[in-house]
Write a structure and sequence with these properties.
Number of domains: 1
Family: Belongs to the Nudix hydrolase family.
Structural class: alpha+beta
Protein name: Bis(5'-nucleosyl)-tetraphosphatase [asymmetrical]
Enzyme class: hydrolase
Number of helices: 3
CATH topology: Nucleoside Triphosphate Pyrophosphohydrolase
Order of helices and strands: EEEEEEHEEEHH
Organism: Accipiter nisus
CATH class: Alpha Beta
CATH superfamily: Nucleoside Triphosphate Pyrophosphohydrolase
Helix content: 10-25%
Cofactor: a divalent metal cation
Length: 168
């Protein structure tokens, strides 16, 4: 199936030439840094936020969702984070230099998910879940990879961690 940008729609909407709509979603991989002992590595204090869905297989994922008409990808990521985790853009710092695009099939349709990286400004900020999710966890890398069942998400979390380590 061939996908083309639809000139009649927002630049973030794709149309399938052979019928069916491609799915596009955007989100934020959110992390926080806990206060750590002076002797420990800074990256040992990093935890990632994962949300457990209330539907389907109850999988764990960063906040993300579908792009609305007229919305750009980054606006979508911040809106979905606010809707799903109760976090405002002002409570987060977007980390420059990281953006990841994942591609996989969902129910016979091509899906693209774009993630940016954001740090919590205050690691004690309360998470307020929407009805779409039933639980959340702050997890160190190893546990986050266990909770995130899909290999592409595990690889993305490891890549994010390496990116953060390289910035130390």
């Amino acid at each position: 199936m061939l996908f083309l940008l639809d000139p009649l729609c927002s630049s973030t909407v794709l149309r399938a030439v052979n019928g069916g709509m491609a799915v596009r979603a955007c989100g934020l991989i959110i992390y926080r840094r806990l206060q750590s002992a002076p002797s420990s590595k800074v990256t040992d204090s990093i935890e990632y936020l994962l949300l457990q869905t209330s539907y389907g297989t109850h999988h764990w994922t960063p906040p993300k969702g579908h792009v609305d008409p007229g919305e750009d990808d980054l606006q979508t990521a911040f809106r979905e984070t606010q809707e799903e985790a109760g976090l405002q853009a002002s409570q987060l710092t977007l980390i420059e230099g990281y953006k990841k695009e994942l591609h996989y099939p969902v129910r016979g349709k091509a899906k693209t998910v774009i993630y940016w990286l954001a740090e919590m400004k205050d690691c004690n900020t309360e998470i307020k879940l929407s009805e779409e999710h039933q639980a959340f966890q702050w997890l160190k890398l190893e546990d986050a990879c266990k909770f995130a069942e899909y290999e592409d998400m595990q690889a993305t979390l490891k890549e994010v961690h390496q990116f953060l380590c390289s910035k130390e």
